[in-house]
Design brief:
104 residues, mainly alpha, single chain
Length: 104
């Protein structure tokens, strides 16, 4: 019995489910939300140490986040998500750091 056709179908299904551009965009949003959440924890914790450490941590994270968010936006656009949806999704992912700071 030849299973070559069956394996090809499974491989193509795996490819389209897990490596399609839209799935990559949504996985990027998930990773971005987790990243922003940990940044919020870092900022809140550093302000508990001192105001100076908190401001330095905030400045470092801002410098890190500017190119990071531009790249995330480009990934969402490349995934085929509409430009206005990209704006809103990026904004709501960015709000997770405020949630983490309030949680802390």
């Amino acid at each position: 019995m030849n299973n070559k056709g069956d394996n090809t179908a499974v491989n193509l299904t795996f490819y389209f489910i897990f490596w399609s551009p839209q799935v990559t965009g949504y996985l990027n949003l998930l990773a971005n939300g987790i990243d922003n959440f940990t940044h919020g924890l870092a900022v809140a914790g550093s302000f508990l140490v001192s105001t100076r450490v908190g401001l330095l941590t905030t400045a470092a994270i801002l410098l890190h986040e500017i190119p990071h968010e531009v790249a995330d936006f480009a990934i969402l656009l490349r995934a085929g998500i509409h430009i206005f949806c990209c704006y809103f999704m990026s904004f709501y992912c960015g709000m997770t750091n405020k949630t983490a700071a309030l949680y802390f």
